[in-house]
Each structure stands twice: as structure tokens, then as C-alpha cells.
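Example 4.3 (complexes with small molecules)
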Amino acid sequence: MAARRRVATGGGIGGGSPGVTGDRPPGEAATLVMVNVGRLVTGDPRLPAPGVVEDAALAASGDRIVYAGPASGLEVAIGPETIEVDAHGAAVIPGFVDAHTHLVWLGERSEEYALRARGASYEEIAEKGGGIRSTVAATAAGTVLELATAARARARRMLRLGTTTVEIKSGYGQSLEAELRQLRAARTLGEEVDLPEVVTTYLPLHGLPDGDRAAYLEEVLGKGLGAAASLAGFVDCFCETGAWDVDECERLLVAARAHGLRAKVHADQRSHSGGSALAARVGAISADHLDHAGDGDLRGLAKAGVTGVLLPGASMVLGGPPPPGRRLLEAGVTVALATDCNPGTCWCESMPLMVSLGVATAGLTPAEALLAATAGGAAALGLADRGRLLPGLRCDALVLATPDWLDVGYHLGANPVARVIAAGRLLLP
Ligand code: NIG
Ligand code: FE
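Answer. The structure with fe (iii) ion bound is encoded below.
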């Protein structure tokens, strides 16, 4: 690359998007320039999925992409502060957006894991006081510091595996204050620059409380939502037999609107419990799990513009029908893949593994799975500024340890990520 070239404003891929190079003040130097990108996976919907540009380059100014396209079209100003990254022919993809996790917990449930292997079901274990209840027992009394310390180790592993944005739910508190401490712990991580960016979700209806469920729900509606509104962007509920029913969940999701909290639903995970229909009815931003959703439910999600979040790790661990990736796409639903990282149904920080499982178990093509793990995750969180590598969007990019983006899913259980750039900054290595 010829350094110190004068800025030109050739748009490159995505040149027509808002915030393209041409909108920038002339003469401002790029803060990051990446060259020798063998294949750049842009996610540009105008190209065949997943939007690959060969022999490409990428440039950012601050946290924004100013160029993403063929190397031959790169013309940006290089200044003394510009970081130059040589990708050495590797593939570069957008950072993963993990849109569904329960990252803040204490304790562990390895015994359940072993019990399930001997045939005990998730429900049987929960009925005997295990499951969510046992994690609540270990987590509820945790201080913000203890909770953040435990979650930080998981978030670090996520970053190393390429996650640049992570959603984190409460849900293991089941008292007003304990739920809020989990949200505060999640937000603490969000302030740390060397971790994925954090989006928080208030999940007050998860396991059932020890006491009176009606009284607990009233407290959540009366005080919880107001208190959580400054700590979370979304509200969620576990709509399931043995957990919270459709009416209880609907009351929560409707009441949350007045507090500016957008709805998410753990929907039709373990049975056809009505969660997907509820998500469509309340205009949720996402309906998650969906293992037992019917085709009519999926059409309802499409009509209501609800993103379907698949958690193929949890589906695999618990058994049951395959996640409906192909059926969702055929119904016209935007699909996201996420880890569901939690101590019971899927302790996994790896989005590359979710891409593998999306292909192997949910009927997605490798390109669809990669987009579901990036742009799909962004859609499930209402983040229009990320998930693709296009001018004007946040520069969250992964340099892979391979020239072939297909290896993300193909190399099962591996970490394909060599370098992580988040918000235009080189975070790893
Ligand atoms: O997404 N389904 C409910 N919540 C989690 C599991 C939580 C747990 O078992 O601790 C899930 O699978
Ligand atoms: Fe979950």
C-alpha cells in the first residue's frame, strides 16, 4: 500500500451507505488500515451471501469503517497515529454478535450434566430443586464485584473467540435487588474496553420464586421494571410449562413498554407453550429458542418482524427437535445464532461452534449461519450499526487464522480467530 496517499472518497463496497468516506472531512487520517485481506466477508446484501470481496482492504476512522472493498480501490490518508494491519492473505469477517446469554452466574451444575447423561430430563432435575433454582441459590447473594469477576472470565473467552458484542441477561436473582445486581455486574463489564460491548436484558420471569408467584410478579411490575429501566435495554421472560405462563409473560412485556424496555421471549423451547405467538402479538424484537414452534408460529414472527434467535448448543445438550433454521428462513424470518451461555443448558462461549451447529443441526448453509451469527445477532438486539463490514458501520472485525471463511464452521470446536478489532481498535492479540 502506498502510504501517505491523499484521501479520495471512492465508496468501495457499500459506497452508497450513510456515513461513507465521502461524508468525512477531507484530510482526516484513517486510524486503522488493514491490507492483504484474502477474502473480506462484508455481509453486503447486494452481493451473493455472505458478501465476499477478494483481495480486499478495510479502513476505519475512530470506531467507524471508512472503507471496505477491493484493495485496488483503497485511498485513505495515513497519519502518524494510523495503525496498519497486514492480514497476510487471511479471511476477515464481522465480529460476532452473541444476542442471547446468561453470562452472570455463580456456582456450577456439572452434577446435572452427568445426571442428564444418565437419562434425567431438564424438567425432572428442576422439579427436584436443581436447574435454575440451584443457580439462583448460588448467585442471588453475590455482590456486584463477585458477579462481575465470574462473568469477566467468560466474557474474555468470548472475545478471544471473536464475539465483539454480547447480550447479558439477569434471571438468577429472583428478588428485586439480586436481579439489579446482576444487571449492574453486566454493565460493569460493558465499561471495560478490552471486553465485548455489552447489551443488557432484564429477565425477571425465569425460574419460579420460592414464595408466592403472583406477589413476585406484582413486585416486578410495580417496582422491578422501573428500577431495571436505567440498567437494561430489553425485558425477557421464560414462557414455558413449569415456568411462567403466557398471561403472566404478556403482562410483563406489555407493562415494560412504558419503561422503554423492548420485549424478548424464551419461546417454545421445551414445549409448544405459546411463546412465539406471544412474541408476535406484543411485537417483540426477538423470539428465542423456538425448538417447538409450529410453522404458523414462524409465519406470525415473519409478519410481525420478530427476529428468531436459535440456540443450537442448548438444543443439542437438552435433545429434542432440531432448531428450525431452514423453516424460519423459508417463512421469511431473520435468523440469529447465539450461545445461550449459561450453567445449565449450554456452558459455551463459542460463536464459531454455534456456526458449526447452525449448519449441522439447524439446516442453515455456511453463509446463512455466518450471517446469523453477525448481522442476525445485531438484528436481534436492534443494533443497525454493526454485524456487517460496510462503510459507516462500527468497525468490529475478525482476522481469521485461515484464508477461508468456511473454516469458521467447518473446523469444529476450533478457534478460527487470530485477531480481534472492536470499535476500530485492535484488541487482540
Ligand atoms: O435459555 N430456558 C431458560 N433459560 C436458560 C437455561 C437456564 C438454566 O437452566 O440455568 C436457557 O436455556
Ligand atoms: Fe436463555
